[in-house]
């Protein structure tokens, strides 16, 4: 066979762009943020449809949300056509455990003729958005997704990112894709009705991102602990904004679809995933991340990278925010699961084990192994910290 | 709320690169194309695994292919670790109809610890590759996929492209993603054992791409009709190479993930999809595409865009290659389904109806409507053409 038959290279780039809006009372008829978004898209050709899917947990606090959405579209939005039947589907981790839930979304996409240029608008917590995002990404090879996250954690972290997933074969996030949304609307009025654990839980991701990205943000959180504990919504809005900003900056300047081995946003996460699982998900993601942050900060101190006063500031901040570092399940099963957690983390991400530790507050450092005895000592210091 | 809370833009690009290799006897121990590919990737860190999945139709003609693969890896490939259990799964359209098949692939990915930096190597026809590609794209948010297409159609068209899919809710390709492979190996020795219909069927995509991209390629096919009918493998290798080359050039210079409305590679396809369905898939994709090409070429002539001698050359080429333009199901149900087919095509792609017609051989033209009575006349001319 002649040389000309040897091979052909295919090489191209795909551009993504989405906007994260920060607002209050998104569906109040005098709030035009959502309406303006759709009107800007109007010129593209045929009239598009919008299928709305709501986390049924939202109905506990806003039982008229479906009517509010209908009124909003009737009053303000002429550029797209709202599908009359607004779906409600259970949220929380269970939404990701059973195929029936994402299949409900895909079936509705089929039934209502939602095409690749139409929209699915998902309103709910992080797990719910993960599940709807998966259905949306794989139907017609990708329907346009609008996320409206309703918890601190989803507004400042997963909801502004580029991933979706469901659990499969008993493995968390085993099925999923990288599929950026077309827009995210962070409405702080959803945060007011969160219970105390959900309010606090999302703050852990802000502490995390401050530690690896921006020392000034860490100091700002330190100086606002009391306001956060007292549920000052203005302070929370600022925290959500800055955390989302750092998260987005990281995604767009890094490796958004994670083709490499490095996962710099996963500081404090290798053990957090295991702890959630060990507690049968009774410990929330943010609560587990707080433990992971504490453990890796102490480890960084014991390795001589982080100063003593720095790791103490971090642990005191976490306790000041109300996080727990000595859950009974930690004392019972934590130590024996440290090495297992490291290997599972490596396997899920693929490639070489790559972790972030701290060289200082706001100064991350990549490492590729952890010393077992130092890790054990760090664990002991953590669970006994007062 | 102050202005600084308004919004944050996220904007980034993702780069993709893959190579399509053309070879013979890929698993002969003295063929180092595959081995060299893996060795080039060796330096990335941990040792990667390769899970091989074979279309069981291949075993009819190459019943020792699993042993050949094992010997090849044992002899040549030290840089990756072959999973000993080589899966065989049914191919053909049915592979895409039942969830159990893609779930077999995802379960194996889980069971054998195939991580995001490891490989799934899929060997089979177009439908089989679509199905394995779907499982691979959604497991761990994307395992590296190596495609080894075994039919003319998959070697020159779908197998070198960026899509995957399964059928769902009775809708063809309803679930799927855009996910480029990391490499494609086109081995012409698989083509020798194809039955006559599969040999011919794939030629339709070459005719199609020549009509919309390259007049010289059209003339080359015209001058090689007899060699193609006589199953000259050298001529077929050249046809596959040039068709793949034009297909890849189109993808990388256009809109690879089809965010817009234009689908320039779908010339002749709007009616082909419907015809496959009407025949309950007894008419193969390429056979249906030949009908679609004929119909749209006559339509282009009747609209005054294509010269009479040009449309006659196209129809004579199709008949010369052995394609049928008057299937019984066409005579029975074709006409009444023309408008339905147009609407379904628009709906699946989303957005505004956008079709290609011809301004000349090698000269495409975008249109946004079709004239019903001209379409009916084109249909009559086609089914009566001798």
Automatic annotation (TrEMBL), chains A, B:
3-dehydroquinate synthase N-terminal domain boundaries: 87-200
InterPro entries registered for this protein in UniProt: Dehydroquinate_synthase, DHQ_synth_fam, DHQS/DOIS_N, DHQS_C
Cofactor: NAD(+); Co(2+)
Enzyme Commission number(s) from the entry: 4.2.3.4
Alphabetical keyword list: Amino-acid biosynthesis, Aromatic amino acid biosynthesis, Cobalt, Lyase, Metal-binding, NAD
SUPFAM superfamilies reported for this sequence: Dehydroquinate synthase-like (SSF56796)
Domain 3-dehydroquinate synthase C-terminal: 202-327
GO molecular function: 3-dehydroquinate synthase activity
Pfam families membership: DHQ_synthase, DHQS_C
Top-level division of the source organism's lineage: Bacteria
Top-level EC class as recorded in UniProt: lyase
Protein name in the entry: 3-dehydroquinate synthase
Species this chain originates from: Leptospira limi
